[in-house]
Automatic annotation (TrEMBL):
Database matches in CDD domains: Lysophospholipase_L1_like (cd01822)
InterPro entries in the cross-refs: Ester_Hydrolysis_Enzymes, SGNH_hydro, SGNH_hydro_sf
Name this protein carries in UniProt: Arylesterase
Species the sequence originates in: Falsiroseomonas frigidaquae
Family annotation (Gene3D superfamilies): SGNH hydrolase
SUPFAM superfamilies, A to Z: SGNH hydrolase (SSF52266)
Record domain SGNH hydrolase-type esterase: where: 38-199
Length: 221
């Protein structure tokens, strides 16, 4: 075969290989990420249409920012951290790439001890870490009627877990900017209304994007 023709074929083959590699890389980068949101009635969007709840609003905001993410709503009204721990395996059936843990509010409402909550959240975080699933821990605050000491111990659980696990993205208060505002909550003053759910999603978005960046670069991502 003449040298010129052989060189041209080799160049074409090399170019085709580069093209395939580029297509493969683009496909890997462009695949849809699955984000699990393990929570209680706040996550479940109590009193709201499904499209108005936090998972749907978070998904919509991420898509507006060009991120192909499906947010898996694993919220169960009334769930405590013990309930979330018990159903973690079931919640992982969709094989999420990342997870948000948003539990604890019902532990406080039922007067369960912060020690119990710590044990359950630790087990949940351990279970996710064992599967190399990047995680965001959303904190919660105890109602003031339970006393200052209980409130300090309750908040310390989230702070301590976040400090001990630098790999976990920490969002200190799930209802930041929403709690206590009658205009952003339903009549029960506990659950966000549609506007409140939107603000919750908007405020969490930077932390969630940090989580997703970690998921995209993780061994399981």
């Amino acid at each position: 075969m003449p040298y010129g023709r052989r060189a041209a074929l080799q160049k074409a083959a090399l170019g085709f290989g580069v093209l395939l590699a580029g297509m493969k890389g683009a496909s890997a980068q462009g695949r849809q990420l699955r984000l699990l949101m393990l929570g209680d009635s706040i996550t479940a969007g109590y009193g709201l249409a499904r499209s108005e709840g936090p998972p749907a609003r978070i998904e919509a905001l991420l898509r507006e920012r060009g991120r192909d993410v499906r947010v898996i709503d694993a919220g169960v009204s009334g769930d405590t951290t013990a309930g979330g721990r018990a159903r973690l395996e079931w919640a992982l059936a969709d094989q999420p790439d990342a997870a948000i843990v948003a539990l604890g509010g019902n532990d406080a409402l039922r007067g369960l001890t912060p020690a119990q909550m710590r044990t359950n959240l630790t087990a949940i975080l351990d279970g996710l870490a064992a599967r190399n699933i990047p995680t965001l821990l959303a904190g919660m605050m105890a109602p003031p009627n339970l006393g200052a000491e209980y409130g300090r111990e309750f908040s310390a659980v989230f702070n301590d877990l976040a400090e001990a696990r630098p790999e976990v993205v920490f969002y200190p208060f799930l209802l930041e900017g929403v709690a206590g505002d009658p205009a952003l909550n339903q009549p029960d003053r506990i659950h966000p209304n549609p506007r409140g759910a939107q603000i919750l999603a908007e405020r969490m978005l930077p932390a969630i994007e940090t989580l997703l960046d970690r998921a995209a670069n993780s061994p399981s991502g």
